[in-house]
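To whoever is on call:

I kicked off a structure prediction for a single chain this morning and the downstream step that reads the tokens threw a length-mismatch warning. I double-checked the sequence; it's 229 residues and nothing unusual in it as far as I can see. Pasting both halves so you can look.
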Amino acid sequence: MAAGRGAYVWRFDSGRICLDLVATGPGGGTPRAREQLEGPARLAGWLTAARLVPPGTALTALDTTWLTRFRELRADVERLMAAQLALQEADVEPVASQPGRPGEGYALERVNSLAAHAPPSPRAVRGEGGALVRTLSTEPDCAGLLAVVARDAVDLLTDPVARSALRRCAGDACHRLYLDTSRGGRRRWCSGEVCGNRERVARHRRRTAAGAAVPTAGAAPSDPSAEEI
């Protein structure tokens, strides 16, 4: 799923908001991906597109401090998800006394600390035309919004079914994290429309190139040493 207006469109393909945050980093998508949270304005856009805040929500306190804290949470979540994937690939259960990957313990402490804060309180109010729309009781602060993402990460990592569905995209030029909720758990790409389509196009081109390289039946092979007359 993509969201956004104008020149920049955000992608929300992972199935969880904490994984969508990881995907905004230079290491969260393709090898050539750049930093997507480039400044406070871009962070504000992501918060709205991710539906952490309703459209039009005032974020007057949002500054570079918010940006730094969201990037730090992103790095911590990515580290914890990488550790979970490593356990799955090794097909072992974690042991309480077993040391984790470097930095994993500190990342877990920070995520737990952020999750302890109260998230923004939602309210339903009448909008234009009389339909109920979502708003927030007060202008959200940074800690409250970080708590939403941190709690999502905690919920994912502590849910045996959800965490077992954690995957990394099999696309040649992508390593996004996502949850495989497909029947049979055979989803290979973060997005069938993006990486899946890219892989199908590449496969078609390989078949076409292979077909063109096969000489026509009965045709004499060319002699590269023959002189052109």
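Update from on-call: the warning came from a stale cache, not from the record. Cleared it. Sanity check on the structure: The first helix runs from residue 17 to 22.
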